[in-house]
């Protein structure tokens, strides 16, 4: 018997970052002391107030279905947060959906605006799942290749020429994974003008919004004139609040789009977990000090990581403006990004993500996460320094 698979899978590879995590877990089970800098998981514990609220909900019997949109308290907390912190105004009853993860919110957003054969522009290097999600929907991700020479800035000059009669949306990620770039107002205004002129939907991933450095301020595209009616904002709790395992996110935007996105939620996952949503309310309303403390520590780790990388022959690294990744240029080692990453794994038991996994513009770079502890970062730096000398011979 032959088993027929849907043709959509021919256009989609497995997640490179998830595959790396599985490799780390397998090696550790075999006794290898792997130092993992490939993933995007904060090593901090979830803030106590969040845990306490979820435990209280569990003990109180709050373990049943919720409304598909989410519990009213969390919908209101999200809308209040967007208004106060982001200048984005949505009706909590019609403009927000609470989802089981920001990843689910992103997939729901793309499903809402893309039909098979449609195109979505994705600035690259980019998180590996953007083009994969488009492929799963039968759509095509069109790469807008950014350059390290201008700090991976997104401009209209890069975007123009990519639009066809099938283009429906533009994905924007700020702060960006893997580059760490944070949009400034000039970029944001160009993006919005481009979307308005070409009648595109903006799908904006703001999952790293709380992690910005050196006095920068995160800017939400939906807050700009002309953007609100065409912007779907994706966010969640994993990165800012160290809640990766909780799987909680949200999608916000104009009612005409959100009302359709709700159908995706209702016919797939139904709702996010009830007690997890209660923890989400606590995260948004009672963790400002915890978030500030994590950002302070990320700043120290960022500077440690960049300094260690810049000390390696053939490697240069610009300090990221946001998120918790260093995107290091390894072209001077004479190795491809995949070969560099493989050598680190084979000879130093350190895992990093090769830049080639992040699409056009990523080759010649590797992504290192400094969401790991200082101890792990120091250990990885020492192992890398011992490998550095022979690179010149490659």
TrEMBL record:
GO molecular function term, any single one: transaminase activity
Names of the cofactor(s): pyridoxal 5'-phosphate
Keywords of the record: Aminotransferase, Pyridoxal phosphate, Transferase
Top class in the EC scheme: transferase
Record EC number: 2.6.1.-
Protein origin, superkingdom: Bacteria
Keyword Repeat annotated: no
PROSITE patterns for the chain: AA_TRANSFER_CLASS_1
InterPro entries: Aminotransferase_I/II_large, AspAT/PAT-like, NHTrfase_class1_PyrdxlP-BS, PyrdxlP-dep_Trfase, PyrdxlP-dep_Trfase_major, PyrdxlP-dep_Trfase_small
Residues of the Aminotransferase class I/classII large domain: 33-378
Family: Belongs to the class-I pyridoxal-phosphate-dependent aminotransferase family.
Full protein name: Aminotransferase
